[in-house]
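Marked as duplicate of an earlier ticket. Keeping the data here for the record.
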Amino acid sequence: MVLNFELDKLTRDLKRIKPKRVLVQLPEGIKQNAMEIAKEIESLGIETIFSGETAWGGCSIAVQEAEALNVDLIVHFGHAKFIDSKFPILYIEVKDELDFEKLLKKSLLKLKKFKRIGLSYSIQHRHDIEKIKKFYEDNGKKIFLSSKIGHAAYDGHVVGCEYRGLKNIQGNVDCFVIIGNQFHSMGACLSVDKPVILIDVYNDDVREMKGIKEKIIKQRAISIEKLKEADNVGVIIEIKPGQRFGAPKFLIDKFKQQGKNVILITMNELTTDKIMNFYHIDAFIELACPRIAIDDFAKYGKPILTFKEALVALGLKSWEELLEEGIV
């Protein structure tokens, strides 16, 4: 695996924008490359500050940090544009340069019974997608890229919190192939009714996601039942502009009407330590990234639910409706 930080593009864009001071956001896996990136930016005479906070996605934009530090620009590595922002942001997507041939050949065994394939990728693999398409087409497959819709920046691009682009082509395909890692493929399998096959480029593996889907659905059903039984409920909101989902006041009013005690909590990032301090709360609803509740089920001692799952607990949405539209 070779990461291409597109430093030529970075330099061109910085020369065009001409900031005096920037805040750089790096995903966890590439924070070790901060020195290399700092040298490139500082060679242009630009003061550079690195955010030590987590940057899980393009939704995780450090606007509050940037304003507090009085920088001119946020340089956000590793993700595509997710939201519009009044604060200037430069997105550097980063290319993961890999040799896909071995994994693509391996995937043909899993895809033997499928003719029409829906194809999606995490942003680091966008530059290889035409070669991947050609490989499958040369092997008799018909390829449909997931639609550019919602927060997806390109056809075929998939983000972790929504899968409308995949749902949009679901009627045209026999299965979906996700190029990336388990994070995106897990969300995909919870959102569509067709088989989902992951080409896991980081673990050199190809696998179907069916078993994981069944396990997660059982976990979500348990969490909903625990919320129904809860006396004390915490509704969590995040202050990052790309991490706001659902309507907190609506939920609070509805749960109070059912006789529950409810408080509203703000967090910059939800962690086990922060949750532990609210030991009197029986269940939490988080209105930040829906994947927090789903992916980290085993991490927390208390049930944590999404906005849509809270609607099921309130009786405003049925369990069948939730499964039909997708848990994520």
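See parent ticket for discussion. The mean pLDDT is 93.
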